[in-house]
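[Automated response] Your request has been received and processed.

Submitted sequence:
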Amino acid sequence: MELQRREARERREAEAEASRPRVILHIEWVSGILYRLVNSGDAPAVNITCVTPHELVRGFESPVNLEKRDAWEFRVVGAFHLPAPTSLTFTWDGQDEPVRVLVPAR
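Generated structure:
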């Protein structure tokens, strides 16, 4: 009987975790050197911090907040001696484990 209760509790916890709102970040190229970080999830992302700052990336000097389905524009400036980043890594409130987001090619 105890095993059944524990399994039912674990199942309810797993279902609750699977159905909770989530932040889903991706990067879109807009034009030229302009890109957009998009929260396509159904939960707000608060205090987004770029934890792998790249000297060619401008726009993440301080934390960013994105509501669900909101976007933040930033720039990737050119430099002949440095390759452009192929990904950026972010954390936000409730997401302490860094999340790698691919930077699309132009």
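Summary generated for your ticket: Residues 89 and 100 are 4 Å apart (CA to CA). Helices lie at 2-19.
If you did not submit this request, please reply to this message.
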